[in-house]
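Structure tokens please, single chain.
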Amino acid sequence: MADPLLIILAPPRSFTSVVCAMLGQHPQMYGLPEVNLFSAETMRERQGMLRWRKPGESGLLRTVAQLWGGEQTMQTVALAKRWVQFRLESACVSVMRELMEKVRPRIIVEKSPSTTRRIDCMQRIRRAFPGARFIHLLRHPRTQGDSLFAMVKNNRAPVSVAQELGALDFSTDPPTLDLQKVWYALHMNIYTFLQTVPRDQWIRIRGEDLLSDPDHYLAEIAAWLGLRTDKEAIEMMKHPERSPYAGIGPLNAPFGNDGKFLRDPRLRPLPKGKEPS
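Here you go.
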């Protein structure tokens, strides 16, 4: 039996924020921000992993504030921090189970790019949720690399990821980044992992295709999941700005999604063959 969990697998800057928010507006799905629950075994290990990446904490805090507090305010986020602290000795997958139970019977849609850094992170999903479904989301390597480079210039990109994947060229001074190598390495991680997943549990979609023809691809994804494909359901998915995680959050948890998406979370249909502005 399928687990009520849909994971979007993609490197950073691959349309994951807008696609997750779109899917999450389907009446039978619930889209999360980046909760980073599969990149570590325990919540304490996760805390250490995010120690130097504070924006990575916002997604789970905003989720807990929304689901248990009914809104995202500085007060409910403060309570969410206590909720997380109380679970520091818990397994990360058990926290995900709590989120899934809270939104049941809706399917959770999760999209943390950090999951793709190591194959064992994705294998952790399979061990805990063998019936989970996966979307392998692609973006053209040149434009994805350009987007990552813009983040590097603004000191917002995880350069440690590039170093971990061998994408820093130390023969130059200063070292230069080969961000297309990051694209290749992360997609190869995803490709290798998906070879171990039954073929009916994953699909591969180009983000450019989905954004250029959302009616077709959103209906295709819903049908694959066995969910509603009527006009009303598809129209709801074309409004990612209605997600509770679209827009900047409270001061103590402002992030959780791509900054550009948070500043303007509307769907901007992409003409075929072109990139969004």
